[in-house]
Amino acid sequence: MPDLATWGMLAAFFGGLVSFFSPCTLPLVPGYLSVVTGGTVTDRSSRLQSLWLSICFVLGFSVVFIAFGASASLLGQWLMAYRQEANLVAGILIVLMGLFMLGWWSMPALQRDWRFGQTLEGGRPTAAFLLGLAFAVGWTPCIGPILGAILALSSTHANAETGMLYLAVYSLGLAIPFLATALFIG
């Protein structure tokens, strides 16, 4: 039987998948891919270029999420003296985020969409990476309930590496369908 850490990693991975297929992320994937690639994808060479640029995009959002994981874990270390209370608060946050996802509770701060007025020229690795960073920061309210639950889980661990690992696995769950879409888009 898997241990608690394995279940946490599985939950983080499936949380990433759910975030990708959520109603506020999935419809935007073609738009993100068109900006990331800088245009249409017609042949094998442009598919490989699209995959490379999508990897840059994934690296961008992964950097932000992994930093969130490290921050949550460091905060968790600081609260180690209050571990039982932190576990209780984390559990309450997970329940509240579940109620939020079910639509039984509303919090306007989790439903904001922040955007910067600057545009990035697609089709370049740097632009794809920066767009990935912007996606992670700007789209956090949309994926916030799931991300918040994983951050709460990572905050209860004794080291930053575990929190970073949880968020890296979350990013992987979000990245795999995105990369698959980029590879097969036409």
Automatic annotation (TrEMBL):
Keywords: Cytochrome c-type biogenesis, Membrane, Transmembrane, Transmembrane helix
Species in which this protein is naturally found: Marinobacter vinifirmus
Domain Cytochrome C biogenesis protein transmembrane: 7-183
Membrane topology reported for the UniProt record: Multi-pass membrane protein
Official protein name in the record: Cytochrome C biogenesis protein
BP terms from Gene Ontology: cytochrome complex assembly
Family membership noted in the UniProt record: Belongs to the DsbD family.
Record-annotated membrane-spanning stretches: 51-76, 88-107, 127-153, 165-185
Domain of life of the source: Bacteria
GO cellular component, one term: membrane
Compartments in which it is found: Membrane
